[in-house]
Design brief:
about 600 residues; 18 helices
Length: about 600
Amino acid sequence: MLDHLGDFKRDYFCGELTENNIGDEVRLLGWADSVRDHGGVIFINLRDREGIVQVVVDPSKSPEEAYEKAKKVRTEYVIGVQGRVQRRPAGTENPKLPTGTIEVIADKLLILNTCDVLPFQIEDNINVSEEVRLKYRYLDIRRKPMFNNLLIRHEVYQATREYLAGHGFLEVETPMLTKSTPEGARDFLVPSRLEKGKFYALPQSPQLFKQILMVGGIERYFQIVKCFRDEDLRADRQPEFTQIDFEMSFVNEEDVIAISEGLVHYIFKKVLGIDLKLPFRRMTYKEAIERYGTDKPDIRYGMELIDVSEIAKNVEFKVFKDAVEKGGVVKGLTIKEGAKFSRKEIDDLTEYAKKFGAKGMAWIKLSEGKMSSPIVKFFTQEQQQQLKEKMKGEEGDLLVFIADTYETTHKVLGFLRKHIADKLNIIPQGKWDFLWIVDFPLVEWDDEEGRFVALHHPFTSPKEEDIPKLDEAITNPQVASSLKSRAYDLVLNGEEIGGGSIRIHTPFVQEKVFKLLGISDEEAKEKFGFLIDALKFGAPPHGGLAFGLDRLIALMVGADSIREVIAFPKTQKGNCPLSGAPDFVTKEQLEELGISVEIEEEKLS
């Protein structure tokens, strides 16, 4: 028979009790973390969200009713305890618990609910599949690491609101049901029951609406907002994710960057007690690509890309020579103490490079005072020495090279650099290296679509000095490729945590950019008509930024996946093991919406 809570109210959370409470009569509520019977005396570690305290039910001190109930308590039973706080007997203290010097002698015990056999133990470190953890997420959240992640998330929410509200931003909600404007990822579509055949879309971001809020004179907007993208998932992607989104009127890049840095500084100071050094470093897109092979470089370690094209163009090694003659580049990485890699390990690196478009990977070992490699025979002694000096190679190092187009060479070496750093475990921990990437290209060529696409999004403003070039760029690919945007990304330890831009605020510039992107007037009106119309009614200069909240918090807590900082995430296949979503719906529901689906009839109930 279970007890009723009635008017039994807790006085303290378990973890709040200290030696100052010795002698106090307290009421506690929570879960039985563990139960031990030591010769008739029952010890219950009572746990709530703030911590654990030991409860003692001693038949010589506690009422018989409390003792009889305590004998029935099992792990994860929900119980209430009333009792007196006392100091633990000398020698029985538990230094692992903040409450380890005190205990509660029970006078009253309530059993409020029982618990079935657990699918896994509620422990900090558990060896259980993520699928099981997600299915029983309510149990997973009881574990201290998961609870702490959600607590940090809560504190980041509060710090964000405090900082932005304190700097004149208004929190405004934008619609969850909006118009489908696919530009990049696929939209999630929601059928309309009232207008059959028509669909809403869940927003990929509040981009259009936040710009319209600037037209509306809000001037400073922010929102902690859900966004939705129907794309393939991985550790840092979810079909629904959260952004800290803000927009400002009458600003330039420096204004947005200053607010962004101030917000990040405030969050880290308030939540983690870390005083970040401002301002953050900056690097151009071109420099990032050429030094690190990526526009989100991890600058906590070296191993930068080294251009050896000038040497390569004169060697007899055809792969190197041809790459340079065709307008490509030859670049390499110096792997310290990499000469110890076995041939299999080098072959594995080659196969890894091929995953990202490389045709192969050349390599040279520096060992026993000489160079060893199948390609060394193609180099003169002088060229070997030049290569060694250019690569800053030393005894015991491994030099690896990619020879290909500019784009492929940098992309492959960027992935190789990170892969090798992980393999050698040379990435420093406990560092927070923030980096702004600026001066992005406005557009990039997409071979698959046969047109230029926006590197960020179609509403990103070109640099002011490039606006006069837009007409020529529409018909001249070389000019188009030279255009720079007023975009900026914030990178932390090799992960992009935020990105934004100064937006286009005049209709004629927006129309020219649409033409550059191969978007016809009809298509622009169909997809973005309501924004284009708004720009005609006195839109102010404006810009903003969106932080990936899930990714930021994952970095703050040291999680490998953003699923660790989301209360109820989806799997990498987009499923929710807890609720069973997505799932089939009834024929009646589909008929109401005027929808038929091509699936086996028996799957619809």
